[in-house]
């Protein structure tokens, strides 16, 4: 009886292995992987009440700087209502809103938020702030994707003194800005939105206590730029002004589900602050569901009265808005995505 040794056994397993590898490749290629699909440019700018160093009106210079950067979201500190409207019109923003951030009087400047997309804005108090300071919390409808945009301007009292005690208190968390930051951090912790951005003149520097507080719940969009300042500091030496080391006190932070692609300090403009910008990306897909599951979700959402949706099987803005309303109602993370948590809850509602 003829025997086959293992080395000479016919290799019938080879076609099967090749077929299995091809099938695995097809499955992996077809599976929707998480994708960074939406990019947006964020800018923060303290415009010094729209005047230059000589107290001359300079809002058109501000407009030139903003238009040169083409941001999608812009937080502006120290701007009046009239100049905010002018900046919105001349810079191409479809939506803007202002809040009384420095006190109740009409003559005071304001915080302003500018956006390419619709805004719903709320003014919230900052603790331990003289002049009744507030920060702005804007919810942006970005083609159905809900995004929270915090805009803030902290006070600067006690930060700089001749003995350096202000800087020491800032590092140790003994300044008013630590209390002000706690107001925002508490709101961030209570908020259920996945996508969050904070921009503003925080009047504090990296490694300070307020900076560390914020870093616990959000991420600096340009943490490596510690030596790149955003505030123009000059002093008189020999009868003329000379530039001093410039601290980084204007910041952009982002939350989970986002990443920073690039950031910069824009060394231009009439204000004593340079604007800062960051290009951010949002992860808005990766739910792993096909058109059939999305269509089923649309039918369920429509049955719940959350929108007159057409069961198209596509994640259009109307579907994302309906998902976000469902997530808000059922205490889920609000992101407008059919994430696993939302999908499981929707299936229970059938």
Q: Would you mind describing this structure in some detail?
A:
By secondary structure, this protein is an alpha+beta fold. The protein folds into two domains: 36-283, Deoxyribonuclease I, Chain A; 289-348, Muramoyl-pentapeptide Carboxypeptidase, domain 1, CATH 1.10.101. Helix content is 30%, strand content 26%. It is built from nine helices and 14 strands. It has helices at residues 13-30, 59-69, 81-91, 165-172, 176-190, 209-215, 291-303, 317-329, 340-348, and strands at 36-46, 73-79, 95-99, 110-115, 119-125, 134-142, 145-153, 196-201, 219-220, 234-237, 240-243, 250-254, 258-265, 276-283. It has a six-stranded mixed β-sheet with strand order 3-4-2-1-14-13, with helices on one face. Helix 2 runs parallel beside helix 3 (81-91). The model is unreliable at 1-11 and 26-34 (pLDDT under 50).
Helix and strand layout, with pairings?
Elements: H1 13-30, E1 36-46, H2 59-69, E2 73-79, H3 81-91, E3 95-99, E4 110-115, E5 119-125, E6 134-142, E7 145-153, H4 165-172, H5 176-190, E8 196-201, H6 209-215, E9 219-220, E10 234-237, E11 240-243, E12 250-254, E13 258-265, E14 276-283, H7 291-303, H8 317-329, H9 340-348
Parallel strand pairs: 1-2, 7-8
Antiparallel strand pairs: 1-14, 2-4, 3-4, 5-6, 6-7, 8-12, 9-12, 10-11, 13-14
Q: How would you concisely characterize the structure shown here?
A:
This protein is α+β, with helices and mostly antiparallel strands. It is 30% helix and 26% strand. The chain has nine helices and 14 strands.
């Amino acid at each position: 009886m003829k025997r086959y040794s293992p080395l000479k056994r016919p290799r019938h397993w080879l076609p099967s292995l090749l077929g299995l590898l091809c099938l695995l490749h097809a499955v992996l290629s077809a599976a929707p992987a998480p994708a960074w699909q939406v990019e947006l440019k964020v800018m923060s700018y303290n415009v010094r009440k729209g005047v230059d160093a000589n107290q001359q009106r300079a809002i058109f210079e501000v407009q030139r700087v903003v238009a040169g950067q083409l941001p999608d979201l812009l937080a502006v500190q120290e701007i009046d209502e009239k100049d905010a409207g002018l900046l919105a019109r001349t810079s191409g923003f479809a939506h803007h809103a202002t809040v009384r951030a420095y006190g109740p009087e009409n003559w005071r400047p304001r915080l302003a938020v500018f956006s390419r997309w619709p805004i719903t804005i709320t003014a919230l108090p900052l603790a331990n702030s003289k002049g009744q300071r507030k920060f702005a919390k804007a919810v942006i409808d970005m083609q159905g994707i809900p995004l929270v945009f915090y805009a803030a301007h902290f006070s600067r009292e006690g930060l700089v003194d001749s003995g350096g005690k202000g800087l020491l208190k800032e590092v140790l968390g003994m300044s008013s800005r630590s209390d002000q930051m706690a107001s925002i951090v508490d709101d961030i912790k209570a908020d259920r939105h996945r996508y969050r951005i904070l921009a503003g003149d925080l009047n504090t520097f990296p490694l300070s206590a307020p900076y560390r507080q914020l870093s616990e719940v959000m991420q600096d969009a340009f943490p490596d730029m510690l030596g790149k300042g955003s505030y123009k500091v000059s002093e008189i030496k020999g009868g003329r002004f000379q530039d001093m080391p410039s601290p980084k006190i204007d910041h952009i932070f982002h939350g989970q589900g986002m990443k920073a692609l690039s950031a910069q300090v824009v060394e231009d403009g009439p204000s004593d602050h340079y604007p800062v910008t960051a290009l951010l990306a949002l992860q808005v897909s990766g739910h792993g569901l096909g058109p059939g599951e999305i269509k089923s979700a649309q039918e369920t959402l429509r049955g719940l009265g959350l929108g007159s949706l057409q069961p198209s099987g596509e994640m259009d803005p109307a579907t994302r808005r309906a998902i976000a309303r469902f997530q808000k109602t059922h205490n889920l993370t609000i992101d407008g995505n059919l994430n696993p948590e939302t999908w499981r809850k929707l299936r229970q509602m059938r």
